[in-house]
Amino acid sequence: MRRAEIEKTLPKVYEDEDVEVVIAPSEDEVREYILEMLKEGPKDIKEIHSVLYNLASDERIRRILYDLKYKGVIEEDKKTKKFYLKKN
Fold first, then answer.
1. Neighbouring C-alpha atoms within 13 Å toward the C-beta of 69
2. Distance between CA atoms of residues 84 and 9, nearest Å
3. pLDDT given for residue 8 in this prediction
4. Cystine design at 10: which of 22, 32, 36, 72 (Cβ 3.0–4.6 Å)?
5. Measured between alpha carbons, how far is residue 13 from residues 6, 29, 65 in Å?
6. d(Cα 57, Cα 24) in Å, to the nearest integer?
7. What ranges do the domains of the chain cover?
8. pLDDT of residue 1
């Protein structure tokens, strides 16, 4: 999932030739974006944040990742610090 794909789904509040203002995604939407990114392959926090920059804080991304890890949806490779979807 790429930044442009995410921005297309966000409601616009204002737009002119220089600026576009959108409503930030909810916690559930950010969670879904992260899961979609992880379907493409393992990612670390920095890679996820580079896509969600200005839409979700580093702290928010970490909280979601560790919540998903706690719930058993994803796992973290301790060596590479990358997160990936848990295989069933």
1. 14
2. 24
3. 86
4. 22
5. 16, 18, 29
6. 11
7. 26-85
8. 67
Amino acid at 77: D
How many whole angstroms from its chain centre is CA 53? 9
Q: Please calculate the CA angle 55-44-78 and round it to the nearest 5 degrees.
A: 145
Q: Which of 74, 77, 76 is nearest to 36 (CA)?
A: 74
pLDDT tens string, the chain, 88 residues long: the values are: 688 888 888 999 999 999 988 898 999 999 999 999 999 999 999 999 999 998 999 999 999 999 999 999 999 999 999 999 988 6
Q: What is the DSSP letter of 88?
A: -
Give the whole-angstrom CA distance, residue 76 versus residue 84.
Answer: 6
Q: Could you tell me how many residues make up the chain? A: 88
The CATH architecture of the domain made up of 26-85 is Orthogonal Bundle (1.10)
